[in-house]
Amino acid sequence: MREEIEYMIMHEETAETEIYYHSLGEDIRGYLSGKKVKDILALDQEIKPCTCGGRAELHEYEGMGDGDYDIICKECGRTMSRSPYDVDLHTWDEVLPACIRDWNAGKSADDIKAMNEAEHERVTITTDDLTWKELHPNNMLGNSLEGYYSLVFRKREDGIYCCKWTIFFQKEEIAPMGTAEDSPIEAYILFMERIFKVTGPMAYPELTKESLRDWDSEDTFVSCGVNSYGDFIRSYKTLEEAKIGAAARCGWQGLNRDTMLKEEEYRGKTAEEVMAEEQ
Ligand SMILES: [Zn+2]
Asked: For residue 254, what are the domain limits?
């Protein structure tokens, strides 16, 4: 990154651009996080003058590693911004093109906010969109039911992204580390795991009587994998609340009701097969 900036300064190639990069440490003109000089120049050309005829500036603000974009007219002050509030409508790489497209269409930030709120409402994943499967340790029927899991997929350019939810039944202990078969459930614990590139079948194997000896497999979903829950999210009093909690947290990586794969689109297929299919 540093070399790129020095190159730009040396060649003054981006001296005429109106792109500003604000990070916690430095403010630089003509620089955009993660972009090459030629991409910055191309982007600058893409941004049309404001509806008032004024010159537009693109600003990127960076903090905690996440970019946030504003386009501002120096004449009338019209602004356009795409903030992390719509991460479930766009992946990070889609945010900037969306921002420029809306600016060029003459929209205002308020138009976008209103539109996003309606769009957000329409595409937000709800409990009806999630399918829950029984969680038995090692995927073996002989082991008791310990909770439920749900897999939500999105096809991206670089592979299949999966958000895996697990609701684990916390049963009352009769002794430290000991629960009885009929111990009442005292809490429903929600866990989340993000898998950025799924390989192999897009489901765990069916429940079996005997242990499937598939732990050496390269596939993402192997029998013993149901035992890995990912990160602790929250503890709930009821199963219903835990399911609502999971659905409400799906929005990330542009995962929403429009982009999530329907079960009939991937049932019985591998991630590789789904990737090879036309959109
Ligand atoms: Zn203007």
From this structure: 127-276
Distance 55 CA to ligand 1 centre (A): 7
Which residue, 75, 102, 121, sits at the end of a domain?
121
Give residue 31 CA to ligand 1 midpoint distance, Å: 23
How many whole angstroms from 58 Cα to the centroid of ligand 1?
A: 13
Distance in Å, CA 16 to ligand 1 centroid? 19
Comparing 235 with 207, the larger pLDDT belongs to 235
User: What sign results for the dihedral spanned by CA atoms 106, 109, 111, 115?
Assistant: positive
Distance in Å, CA 105 to ligand 1 centroid? 13
Q: pTM for this structure?
A: 0.68
Cα 97 from Cα 188, distance rounded (Å): 41
Q: Which of 70, 92, 121 represents a domain boundary (last residue)? A: 121
Residues 103 and 186 grouped into a single domain:
no
Name the β-bridge partners of 189. Answer: 168, 235
> What are the tens digits of pLDDT across the range 4-61?
666 666 566 666 778 888 877 778 877 787 777 788 888 888 999 999 999 898 888 8
Task: Give per-residue pLDDT as tens, 171-201.
Answer: 999 888 788 878 899 999 999 999 999 999 9
Amino acid (one-letter) located at 27: D
Q: In this predicted structure, what is the pLDDT of residue 5?
A: 63
Q: How many domains does the chain have?
A: 2
DSSP 3: H
**CA 75 – ligand 1 centroid, Å:** 5
Residue 193's region, left for phi above 0, alpha for psi from -120 to 50, else beta, is beta
Per-residue confidence (pLDDT) for residue 138, from 0 to 100: 92
- Cα(230)–Cα(227) distance, integer angstroms: 9
